[in-house]
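Re: flavin mononucleotide structure - here you go.
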Amino acid sequence: MTWVEQLRAHEAVCRRAPSAHNTQPWQPEYHADEIVINVDPARSLPDSDPTGRDLDLGVGAFVEACLIVAADLGLNVTAVPGPRLVAAAHAYPTPFTIADVEARRVARGRYATGPVDAAALADLEPGFVHLPARDLASELVVADRWQFGTPAVVAELRDWLRLDPHHPRYHLDGLTDRALVLSWFEARFLAAALRAYPVTRRLGLASLLAASGRNLLRYDGSVLVMLAEGDDDHVTAGRRLLRSWLTLARHGLAVHPLSQLIDCPVTAARLAERVGGRPLAVFRVGRPLAEPVRSARLQPQATG
Ligand SMILES: Cc1cc2nc3c(=O)[nH]c(=O)nc-3n(C[C@H](O)[C@H](O)[C@H](O)COP(=O)(O)O)c2cc1C
């Protein structure tokens, strides 16, 4: 088997990489001695992610996952712009393994109180700013209200929600009721409110839904902000993002991204000022009180 064939045989592991709304936009194109990482435009989020920031971060996370899997298989592979994966003289240097990629998951439930250990923060690469969760609690309400008050953003979210286990794509992609830690009643309520969105928007749905997340950051916990570093593009930043999540996971810590804080223009500007840089990702971090669910994934395309 060539290195390309071996890595292809492990595509399902690489696909454990995270992506916004769990769209899994990656379309690896396999050649004799390289793998080109394309994206499926139907799996982008033009309204919620108009600059393609989250799309590129997700592509970067997939590239990093591929490199970790290749290294664990003993394959000498590196990433070059494109992005493409090509043969290299040495294995990719990484402390992470297939087991780390498989085990990682976002956790949206409650976390233990208390800030994260200094030791975990010290293990991160440069470019992460720690903030007390409470400092962003009211900003999150503003960002949520913007998100749920923007029809195109809501329509896109609705397309990727799988709030009922009978949804035909429940086990394939998108965000399930379980991944969002919604009770049966909350899932039904959200589904009904989104179905009737033009009406519910006028009735103040945005405030209502924003209110449901009001307490998410009102606890003694931690938020990390990943800043743009130098000339790094967003794919490179996405690789750093996945490494940071895997590093935190090694410390028993989970993350919960809150991208609305950097999607909403008002909160994005205030956050940039607060941290003195260009935020590319924002996430709550801590020790989850309950085991997070394993999110759905598409199966790799069968080899022809
Ligand atoms: C760039 C990026 C942005 C994300 N933004 C959010 C977000 O704003 N809110 C959220 O709950 N999850 C967010 N996520 C997490 C994804 O929804 C999650 O990775 C996906 O559902 C797959 O789940 P898993 O990471 O547990 O495998 C984001 C992930 C990425 C890579």
